[in-house]
Every structure is written in structure tokens, then in C-alpha cells.
Design a protein that fits this description.
single chain; about 80 residues; mainly beta; two-stranded antiparallel ribbon; 8 strands; about 0% helix; rod-shaped
Length: about 80
């Protein structure tokens, strides 16, 4: 008796700035971002920032953020 088994496993992890789409990692487009690994959807860019693609988030002048992994943006108190 012969058995045939079809087995498929994915062992990769999408990087920051990529999301899983159709079983592959795709870079988020301009105007969106992904800062976590293996997320399934890109997020719309944060207010007071510009998202170039992937996880490249540029904060507008007069604002700051505590970490590139944070989505909290604060207005500078002395501007």
C-alpha cells in the first residue's frame, strides 16, 4: 500500500514593512506602514507623519516620537 502526502509549510517571517499576502511577503506601499513582523495588513499612515513604504515613517516638523516601533506621535511643546 502506497500513501501520498502533500505537505506544505512556510518557515519565513515577513520583515518590518512587509505583510503576508497570498502566501508571500509584500512591502507596504507609500501612505501605509507595518512595524510588526508577519502582519496581515498594512496600516494607514499615522497623523502628522509621512509613510514612504515599508516601515519608513517620517515625522512632520514640530513633532516627535519615542521610538520607531511606536505609533504615538507628540507635538513638540516648544514650537
Amino acid at each position: 500500500m502506497l500513501f501520498e502526502v502533500d505537505f506544505r509549510a512556510n518557515f519565513w517571517v515577513c520583515q518590518h514593512g512587509e505583510v503576508i499576502a497570498n502566501d508571500i511577503c509584500e512591502v507596504c506601499s507609500t501612505g501605509s506602514y507595518s512595524i510588526g513582523e508577519s502582519q496581515i495588513a498594512c496600516q494607514p499612515c499615522i497623523d502628522n507623519a509621512f509613510c514612504d513604504e515599508g516601515f519608513k515613517i517620517q515625522i512632520e516638523e514640530g513633532f516627535w516620537w519615542p521610538s520607531w516601533e511606536s505609533t504615538n506621535i507628540y507635538k513638540c511643546p516648544y514650537t
